Fold this protein.
Amino acid sequence: MTYLRNAWYMAGWMDEVTVEHGLARTLLDEPVYIYRDVAGEAHALLDRCPHRFAPLSMGRRDGDVVVCAYHGLGFGGAGRCVRNPHGPVTRSLDVRSYPVAEAHRILWIWMGDPALADPMSIMDLSFLSSATEASFNNGYINGHGHYQLFVDNILDLSHTDYLHPDTLGGGAISRTRAKVMQRDDGVISIYWHVVDDVPTPLFRQFLPEKTDRVDSWTEVDWTAPGVMKLVSGAVETGGSRAGALNVENVHIFTPNTSVSTHYFFASTRNFGVDNVTLNESIRTARARIFSSEDEPMIAAQQQRMGDRDFWSLRPALLRTDEGAVKVRRRMDELIAREASELAINRNIG
Ligand code: FES
Ligand SMILES: [Fe+2]
């Protein structure tokens, strides 16, 4: 399967990788081993020894050297072979390494041309790092389905009214036409601004008692390949947004294989920021909703689609698909552009 290579993908949460414990994860069909050296700096290597293809994640650490468990080749952070117990160290023994960056509590990996990896192009998600510990909660699901099905799920939030009617839904999103905007910097935004409608069941419990009608907002900003910021909030009808209940989330999708996806999510809020119990209940509720309602639906969609291409099945398009279709077209463009640049470079080379 063809993936966009020159992009920052989320490989994991920063605290998933410690000096003691590395992380073996398949990303874009490639096995990757991420570990921290003694100084705590993160490195990512292809998790396949160049000798007889043993996973390096099964090896052991000797200081900063990753030692293959099978015949003892040793590798440094840039993938350089630094130890060969059986003969000379040569560059043919190097293993592929990937640029990594750490920002906003997230470990990012660049799966394409290392010369193009610029951490400044990572979406600004600094609200995650500035949140208090008791107002930050996160999670991970190993999802079954193509990553674009997971991305579609966030870009068409009318599904909340049907799939999550008792929590995230309630009807207002389906009654409101989304505003879809494509910005020059590549961000595609889908905003639902709801006027004088019912709050979602989840928000209702945080609003002042007897608040039955609200103005609310749900705003999704997407960047390639599948990084999304989702802001939602509500205030009694006619009230000001300044100081209103506001929740800032991320939903980030990284392909595992062509039919499975790493689903990372996190949430912060501007109320009850020191309330650990509230934080845990939000963490639990979100993990339950995503893993028992969204993920099974997407897995079932994928099963019905089999290995057929999404567009070849001629999906019926609804008004609510506008944002998701724009994003799919944008991804197709980026992937095609990357493939043609690669072909040009090959010809020149
Ligand atoms: S497979 Fe790694 S040293 Fe032989
Ligand atoms: Fe959902």
